[in-house]
Write a structure and sequence with these properties.
2 copies of one chain form a homodimer.
Chain A lengths: L4 H8 L3 H9 L6 H13 L6 H8 L4 E6 L5 H16 L3 E6 L6 H9 L4 E5 L5 H9 L3 E5 L8 E5 L1 H14 L4 E5 L6 H13 L5 E5 L6 H11 L7 E4 L2 H13 L9 E3 L5 H6 L3 E3 L2 H17 L7 E4 L2 E3 L11
Parallel strand pairs in A: 1-2, 1-3, 3-4, 4-5, 5-11, 6-7, 6-8, 8-9
Antiparallel strand pairs in A: 10-12
Helix pairs in contact in A: 1-2, 1-3, 5-13, 8-9, 10-11
Chain A binds a DNA duplex through helix 2 and helix 4.
Amino acid sequence: MRATIRDVAREAGVSIATVSRVLRDSTAVRPTTRDRVLAAADELEFVPSALGRQLAERRHAANGIVFPDLSGPYYAEVVLGYESVAAELGRSVLILSTRDRPDAESAVQAMAERCDGLVVLGRTVPDAAVERLVVRGAHVVMVARPPVGGADSVNARNRQGARALTEHLLDLDVRRLVFVGDPSTSPDVAERLRGIQEALPADADLQLHHVDSLDEECGAHVVGDYLTRALPDAFVCANDELALGMLGRLSAAGVDLPGRVKVAGWDDVMAARYAGLTTVRQPMRELGATAARLLDELISGSRSHPTHELLPTQLVVRSTTLGKVAP
Amino acid sequence: MRATIRDVAREAGVSIATVSRVLRDSTAVRPTTRDRVLAAADELEFVPSALGRQLAERRHAANGIVFPDLSGPYYAEVVLGYESVAAELGRSVLILSTRDRPDAESAVQAMAERCDGLVVLGRTVPDAAVERLVVRGAHVVMVARPPVGGADSVNARNRQGARALTEHLLDLDVRRLVFVGDPSTSPDVAERLRGIQEALPADADLQLHHVDSLDEECGAHVVGDYLTRALPDAFVCANDELALGMLGRLSAAGVDLPGRVKVAGWDDVMAARYAGLTTVRQPMRELGATAARLLDELISGSRSHPTHELLPTQLVVRSTTLGKVAP
DNA sequence: CGACGGTTTGTAACCGGTTACACGAGCACC
DNA sequence: GGTGCTCGTGTAACCGGTTACAAACCGTCG
């Protein structure tokens, strides 16, 4: 059995209070006593129990993060940014993927019991579940999702990015475009679609192509649907993976790109750069990092009113949208 | 303040022991008493404190996982497989990325205090640090890394996969090949290189091209180095991302592929399929899932002797290694 | 009717820390 | 020499659960 604070106290001939004081450096302890305690702790290889400490301090020193999935670069990057800041702030990170989990809500509730606050990403649990968390006093930050109840939120400027992208396409004489994605599953995606709609003039035509998932496989499938009928001037995809999947399939089918059709993605994942994909960059890692900071403010109590951060997006034009549409 | 078990006991007019019994369903409680307790718990919206429970049970009901990074599909998939099984087993998952962290070892030690066992992936902390964990009684499973001390391990059959890939290339008359990667940073990569060396006949030529990192950017850089000198017959990359980066740059440079040079990757990430990349598939998610199961056996004490699992790899031939080398 | 055995329930001691409060020692000051 | 202060340390009560053990209760049987 591992040594406890009482063992150390006995070994050093002091009380457990003194041991605790030495180890947390809280109040003055006579140097000779301190040395005795440290020697005893060293001798017994004492490591304080995280559980005992947490219970006494009534804090977990841990944050949670809930995401739908980790396949694909987007969520992974957000989690990475989050973990990195949380670690700096001395907090551990608990993860929870709602992927294939029918009991997502109860899993999130259970997680909330194990941390001081948590971040909820995109389409994971319903708003009502988040509200319940907040009502119960949990500290919650939403990412890539409109704020719920009194929770904080961090979002990218999706509308703005969508407008910039749309204007760029309009400059290339694009008039018939297809949005590939499912606005019903992700609030972020819905925002992007809305931004495009707002920027489009009346004489332009926007179709919505639903997909089941936002991965490369789906992108490739979408192309299949268009090989037998008329291609639009441009495809705008809900994320880069869809777009990359389309690129592969289009080039395999021998479609001239960007001459015959243009393709744009969203996120600016690393692969987009190497594929020459036009996209809207959003600061994925910074989304996670900002969420971690907001959460820390909530937990430490340095702020009580909800905050809603908007991070910039940026149009990145590459070779998949070069040149005007042929008349 | 939230209700505690004592509040519920008072409200129901029973002792805390009875409340605890009702809530954990351990021993027989008279139905009428049970109902009173449940009603009281409901009334007070009682949710048992995870910390109190954990301290009393002396278990965290949480597992850790340590990885170098989360950019790129490989680690993300392993983590996903791990989380999914851990959740099934009723355990939370703590993550720790050693990326850009100078104090990785102490961070891992701290994490070990907060969970019942942990998984250490690839190149993260030195062997000595893992040994210290094991000596201190921590349950440790290594993934993509040779076992250390008494720890369990889960690995893919790297040598076997490398041999299959090499034989495939030899069949195509490849004689001069370049391995792109850094065997010194990752034991997995070193194994792959060794497998190739073992399978190569004496008249073949294998060069090693070091890279700083295993991402697409590095892959693109590598190509730059070869555009001014002779290309080998084939590049074998330590992972798919390197290979994908090379593909993009090679095709931009107008190099005939697979005619002039062949390229192979490793992992079989989703993008590899759409890029037509020949690669060696390893079951990334299953690596994580297996680690979670082994860890559970260690923690539950159902097994005490170390186990070392080897998961299959599989050569996946696609268009980047089609046709024989031109004489 | 009392002994006996099984079922329910309560008491209290944990788990391993933190910390409010009290107490004693040492010192300066009047 | 007594008073009052500061400094260092110990006592004990927490934090919020689980659980060994004992006790109380109830029905049955001799």
